[in-house]
TrEMBL record:
Necessary cofactors: FMN
Name of one Pfam family that matches: TM1586_NiRdase
Keyword Secreted: no
UniProt protein name: Nitroreductase family protein
SUPFAM superfamilies assigned to the protein according to its UniProt record, in alphabetical order: FMN-dependent nitroreductase-like
Organism: Helicovermis profundi
PANTHER family for this protein: NAD(P)H NITROREDUCTASE YDGI-RELATED (PTHR43673), NITROREDUCTASE (PTHR43673:SF2)
Keyword terms, alphabetized: Flavoprotein, FMN, Oxidoreductase
Amino acid sequence: MKFLKILEKRKSIREYKSKKLSDSHFDLIDSLSNNLPNAVKNQGLEVNIFKDGSIISEKLDGIIGYHGIMIKAPHYLLIFGDENEVAYKMTGYLGEWLVLKLTKEDIGTCWIDVGANDRLIKEKLNLVSHKSVLGIIALGYPKSDARVSSIYAENDDKLISENRKGYPNTDIEYKDNIVSRRKPIEDIVFLSKWGNKITAEELDTRNYDEVFYYMRLAPSWTNRQPWKFILDGTKIILYIESSEQENNNYELIESGIAMLYFEVAMHGQGIPGYWNLEKLEDEKKYGAPDNYYYIGYYTF
Ligand SMILES: Cc1cc2nc3c(=O)[nH]c(=O)nc-3n(C[C@H](O)[C@H](O)[C@H](O)COP(=O)(O)O)c2cc1C
């Protein structure tokens, strides 16, 4: 299966069989963890698999996950690194690269919201490391009848009251759907300037229609889909919406995930190129509103 097609296959899995992964799947995870993609090499990130997931799910229940609802899985991947913006972005890129490689093998995964709980996580799990826990991903073989948001069934009341308080939880409406909804392409791509919508024909002539079809399948925190792209010649500029919450680590993780999806989609269409996270001197000319911030640009 082409890597591009895996973007279509992936979805967050929240219910797992209790069966452990096969030895060959553990070997695959070891080999992936030791052969990281170029973009994340030399970023000081480490991937660790925790084979006995019951310890993690018990000790971190009530601490991580939406509203402290832990996703119970037979195993977990933890990504360790230094706490800085680039490391969080690259955690998103690396974690999602692993997710896609595992999806190819029919292994289910789900990112878990870690929040600002690094110290507590290390304390609860008795981990001695000078690095921080930047990302956690649940994994295992999916229950065949697992629905996208069935985790919420027994917690609906709590979530509805949280929603009334304005807590952004879009998942609640996906209960009966197998795939979470996505925003239309015209809402996420602008031509040359913020707000300048691109027509289907313009996207098609640039060969970008399929690129964004695949890109928008990227997972995001509560499915908020915080990304916007501006097409400017051979540069494609990525912005992420600020959720204005105190802890914005997940926004940086989402930006790394978006970078990976975009890159895989571009390469899959035969358009080469790479991401550049440097500042753009004339970035203000695009006119992004204050609640969006610049992440980087893709160029070819
Ligand atoms: C950074 C991040 C954190 C997430 N945290 C959680 C979580 O704590 N609990 C959960 O059920 N899903 C979590 N998710 C999964 C999203 O809810 C999911 O990606 C989104 O609803 C879209 O659905 P899909 O992944 O099936 O396409 C997280 C996703 C991301 C990217």
